[in-house]
Write a structure and sequence with these properties.
Length: 385
Amino acid sequence: MSDKNYKFGTKAIHAGAEPDPSTGAIMTPIFQTSTFVQESPGKHKGFAYARGKNPTRMALEKNLAALENGKYALCFSSGMGSMDAVIKLLKPGDEVITGDDLYGGSYRMFTKIFAPMGIVFHFVNMTDASNIAKYVNANTKMIWAETPTNPTMQIIDIEACAKIAKEHKLILAVDNTFASPYLQNPLALGADIVMHSVTKYLGGHSDVVMGALIMNDDSLYERIAFIHNSCGATPGPMDSFLVMRGIKTLHLRMERHCFNGRKIAEFLKTHPAIEKIYWPGFTDHPNHEIAKKQMRDFGGMISIVLKNADLEKTFKIASSFEVFSLAESLGGVESLINHPATMTHASIPKEERERVGVVDNLLRLSVGVEDVEDLIADLAQALDK
């Protein structure tokens, strides 16, 4: 496929995928090999050892770069592996400004792995960009932003963050997992690095664990590619194939996720069992206008706070669904319900969780692509427990 400026759906299906030259196969083959034969020492066809490069993975990386309108992409064996590579750009004494509402695994990595190595993290409210600027000092090297955040759906102004980053010569990395490239493209808004847990919407079928980084800067790519190859958190060809297959329907799935998400959010908004709902499509959601500006739609991630529910009642409701499944992760075709306080965000101290709204009676919904009437009926019966 040429570099023509195709629309998103066309790129999802065709970018990076070329007919196999030996057979004409329309699907990229699974190059299930660890090594490649060389004509003479150092003389090969671009592939020597599969940790460095694999043709199946390379095809996926080209596809991901195209979807984010980037120049380069690198795939990792997990989303955490991709984050790990980004933080390894730093050295002891460097400082990072990040949000106070983060995925629990991100918080755990920052505080338990890299903070003891001398990297300083500031967890701040990023919904007002002017608050970010207050924490910039001579040691600041990076801004790490999630938007929408996990699980309270905070909306961070990427353009405003990019302006601060450029003014102070900082790297701006944006976790775009909740939005996917279909809804939001941070590079176009000034970000330097886009991170995805490919496990989620990109793979879309709950059968792969993978991460990815996308960027435009040549020097930044070379530095991360060196870490990628040297540290070895690289995915196998079968997983790369599965993600490429999943991406071919990304635009179709996201349309349905958004449609179902809106219908369910509207149903839950006035439900008597709900004390609070987090969904960026509501006009009264904080920074809704920013979401409207930087996103194409509002997605299928919704969080709810149950009214007058202690932990026992919350657990009972969470365990009462018939179509929704109680499980970690998100972004698959099937709908999931999650209890962040004891599941995805259990590594965050209770007082810090509760300060940003991750309370014991909060549930997070990943709305799938099932028939929305069935999903609403399932919510109704579970909330009646």
